[in-house]
Amino acid sequence: MYRSLYRHLLSRMDAEWIHGVALSSLAAAGAFPLSRALLQRLFAPYADSSLRVQAFGLRFAHPLGLAAGFDKDGTALRGLAALGFSFIEVGTVTPQPQAGNPKPRLFRLLEDRALINRLGFPSSGMVQVAHNLRWRPATPIAISLGKNKETPLGAALRDYRAVLEHLYAYGDLFVVNVSSPNTPELRRLQSDAYLNDLLAGLRQSVDAQPVAKPLLLKIAPDLSLDEIEVICALALQNGISGIIATNTMLERPPNLRSVAARESGGLSGAPLRDRSTAIVQYIHRVTEGKLPVIGVGGVFSGADLWAKLCAGATLVQAYTGFVYEGLAFVKRALRELKQIMAAEGVRNLNEIIGKTD
Ligand SMILES: Cc1cc2nc3c(=O)[nH]c(=O)nc-3n(C[C@H](O)[C@H](O)[C@H](O)COP(=O)(O)O)c2cc1C
């Protein structure tokens, strides 16, 4: 029903406006115990011990979490948790509030099951996000760290550090986002010249905290394998706990059919799926599994989850798949994953991680 509603009605309306309405509704439904319980009852998957994952010193009910960008300011976390995501990434959060790029800046590519966005880190800023996170759910929360648009690359560490330190008490994992294509020059931070200092500086900040928490790095899918290998080496050298692969893609595959494919920005969804899976597999191989990977890009179904796990992902995230599949996304994807596990005679997820590597 949601798919047909989405195709015929929601898809005719402005994508960002609909997103705002969905987020406010989830925030409202998540704020009250009764409506929260109803969401959970209708949409959350049943607890299943065979899907549990332990990673980064944390326990996850299953491998499927919500990717960064959906709830940038952490306003709807209780509603999103009630839908069954096993972890939620808030952000990307910048130190100072900023509006992001001019609208329109979010586009649906219905025929391609994809989105293009050039939001450019709209953020309420770290002070407001800290305020919002006072009502966080028990579900593990990752916080994506970013820099303000006006901050020069040479001063980026200051911005990332400010957000990390301000929000440290509120998150369970932290993600250094150097891979969004919509902040000018941001992705240059992935290069050797900047990355080592950035990661070393953030490592120091984590080490200075009373409690150690995992720090991860999120990378772009447009990097070459050689660049990814260098990034993995720097990550290992600087005690980074894991890699999130990948962010949205700048490249446009030639077979895209939607008119909106011409829009500039980062492409997500089905056309990104195989590229991000290949990168997960490469990282798993080149680091011999020493650097846990969170696989993200084009996950719509249990089969997509299975493919990411087999490629070496310890956990998986989705954004576009949730937009297209609707509120029952997690429940359906996990049901399909369980069916594949049963058909393959797999009883526990640890048996399959990295199987196709
Ligand atoms: C509208 C939109 C906004 C996003 N904003 C962020 C962001 O702020 N930070 C980030 O790290 N990734 C962001 N992403 C990237 C997603 O987290 C994810 O890496 C990417 O969309 C690929 O996954 P998907 O195919 O499941 O959507 C955004 C994606 C979309 C579609």
Structural description of this entry:
This protein has 357 residues and is an alpha/beta fold. It has one domain (2-41, 48-351): Alpha-Beta Barrel (TIM Barrel). 38% of the residues lie in helices and 16% in strands. It has 12 helices and 13 strands. It has helices at 2-8, 15-31, 33-43, 77-82, 126-132, 156-167, 192-207, 225-237, 273-286, 302-311, 320-325, 329-344; strands at 53-55, 58-60, 64-66, 88-93, 106-109, 114-117, 141-145, 173-177, 215-219, 242-245, 266-269, 293-296, 313-318. The strands form 3 sheets. It has an 8-stranded parallel β-sheet with strand order 3-13-12-10-9-8-7-4. The chain has a 3-stranded antiparallel β-sheet with strand order 5-6-11, with no helix packed on it. The protein has a two-stranded antiparallel ribbon with strand order 1-2. α6 links the parallel β7 and β8 (173-177). α6 packs parallel to α7. The radius of gyration is 19 Å and the shape is globular. The model has no long low-confidence stretch (mean pLDDT 92). Flavin mononucleotide is lined by residues 67-69, 72, 91-92, 106, 115, 117, 119, 121, 144, 177, 180, 218, 247-248, 268-269, 272, 296-299, 318-321.
Task: List the keywords.
357 residues; alpha/beta; TIM Barrel; eight-stranded parallel β-sheet; three-stranded antiparallel β-sheet; binds flavin mononucleotide
What order do the helices and strands come in, and which of them pair?
Elements: H1 2-8, H2 15-31, H3 33-43, E1 53-55, E2 58-60, E3 64-66, H4 77-82, E4 88-93, E5 106-109, E6 114-117, H5 126-132, E7 141-145, H6 156-167, E8 173-177, H7 192-207, E9 215-219, H8 225-237, E10 242-245, E11 266-269, H9 273-286, E12 293-296, H10 302-311, E13 313-318, H11 320-325, H12 329-344
Parallel strand pairs: 3-13, 4-7, 7-8, 8-9, 9-10, 10-12, 12-13
Antiparallel strand pairs: 1-2, 5-6, 6-11
